[in-house]
Specification:
The structure holds two protein chains of two kinds.
Chain A (H helix, E strand, L loop, with lengths): L3 E5 L3 H13 L3 E5 L2 H10 L4 E5 L7 H11 L4 E6 L4 H9 L4 E4 L4 H34 L2
Parallel strand pairs in A: 1-2, 1-3, 3-4, 4-5
Chain B lengths: L2 H47 L6 H30 L6 E4 H18 L3 E4 L7 E4 L1 H17 L4 E9 L2 E7 L15 H10 L1 E6 L4 E6 L4
Parallel strand pairs in B: 2-4
Antiparallel strand pairs in B: 1-3, 4-5, 5-7, 6-7
Classes of the chains: A alpha/beta, B alpha+beta.
Chain lengths: 142, 217
């Protein structure tokens, strides 16, 4: 099953090229050029993983990550930044990011992480489904 | 070292670090785009080896993108270099418009993150003066930061040579409450102002900060 990815970055030239490369590798890719736009898209469509730039005008990467995890806790987020510091990395992980990569990123490395993110999300969705079924069975007394 | 110069040194290091980090981050973004375009070119070559034809127009577009980002990165490095060299001498003859153009271009990225814009209105004739360009850039940044932190989205810099001397007006379209000016200028701004022999006047009603160089400039 192909991975469904949302790429979020204010550098449109970067978005266009990276998304094209990801599509040739069989991924379904949507793009957003701002945190606010990404938050709207996530409400409308389901994604396995978000690749999120840290430094963006308006709602920046960390703020977007925080809101994303509140709205969609199972969604996996990988932060991409041109300014990777230990402090930002720790902050991102505390807010629930799955991983933190520095630009320019190696696409094969990023692809591996996307596959892992999809697998992790599927596990979480399965777990929640099982919990719902269990609760339903208990309520019905079956 | 006197207390004043301790403040200036500490503030100067922080200013230098902040500006350098901003420029280097933008260079990284340009490199990331070059990297992706190179990767896409590699992808096309792999597909070509498997028999898929290459579109020459697409290759031309990729080449154009790479050149655009190389030019962007080059401009950024030049800017970083000019900024670094502004700390070379404690006092030199400068073109005020050029110095403000440098700090405006560096500050613009930081302003953009707050969805704001900084605009320099160049004087009709060149305004020159003898001063410490690094400290002046620092003071301008601190004034810009005051406005940006207060939520203003458009700041204009207007360097002027008047009968009373040389001054720089920083103007915003909105007035701000007098209470917002109570903490500004603080000790660090005052230390730099004293070193530069500059007076700072806040005019909340007109939406301006006016920096005036004392006579002998």
């Amino acid at each position: 099953m192909s991975e469904k990815v949302l790429l979020v970055d204010d550098e449109v030239d970067f978005l266009d090229t990276l998304s094209e490369r990801m599509r040739t590798r069989g991924m379904e890719v949507a793009t957003s050029s701002s945190g606010a736009e990404a938050l709207k898209k996530v409400e409308q469509e389901s994604f396995d993983v978000i690749i999120l730039d840290l430094m963006m005008p308006g709602t920046d990467g960390l703020e977007t990550l925080k809101i994303l995890k509140e709205k969609k806790p199972d969604l996996q987020v990988i932060l991409l930044t041109g300014q990777a510091t230990v402090e930002k990395g720790i902050e991102a992980m505390k807010l629930g990011a799955m991983d933190f990569l520095e630009k320019p990123a190696d696409l094969s490395q990023l692809t591996e992480k996307i596959k892992k993110a999809q697998a992790k999300k599927m596990l979480l969705v399965e777990k929640h489904t099982e919990e719902k079924i269990k609760k339903l069975l208990e309520e019905k007394g079956w | 070292m006197t207390a004043q110069w301790e403040i200036i040194a500490r503030e100067g290091f922080q200013f230098f670090g902040k500006m350098s980090a901003s420029i280097s981050h933008e260079i990284k973004n340009a490199l990331a785009i070059i990297n992706e375009n190179a990767g896409l070119l590699e992808d096309f070559m792999l597909l070509a080896e498997k028999g898929r034809p290459i579109d020459p127009l697409r290759l031309k577009s990729l080449a154009g993108q790479v050149m655009k980002q190389v030019k962007r990165a080059d401009e950024l490095v030049k800017r970083m270099n000019r900024f670094a060299h502004s700390a070379d001498e404690p006092s030199k003859n400068i073109d005020l418009g050029e110095t403000l153009e440098l700090i405006t271009s560096i500050a613009q990225r930081l302003a953009s993150r707050r969805e704001a814009r900084v605009e320099l209105v160049m004087p009709e004739q060149a305004v020159t003066l003898i001063t410490n360009s690094f400290l002046l850039e620092d003071l301008i940044w601190l004034c810009l930061d005051f406005f940006l932190s207060a939520g203003h989205k458009a700041v204009r810099l207007l360097p002027e040579s008047t009968e009373d001397g040389i001054r720089i007006r920083l103007a915003v379209p909105e007035v701000w409450p007098i209470s917002a000016s109570e903490a500004f200028p603080s000790g660090r701004e005052k230390a730099i102002m004293e070193a530069l022999q500059v007076d700072l006047r806040m005019d909340p009603g007109a939406g301006e900060i006016i920096l005036s160089f004392r006579k002998d400039h």
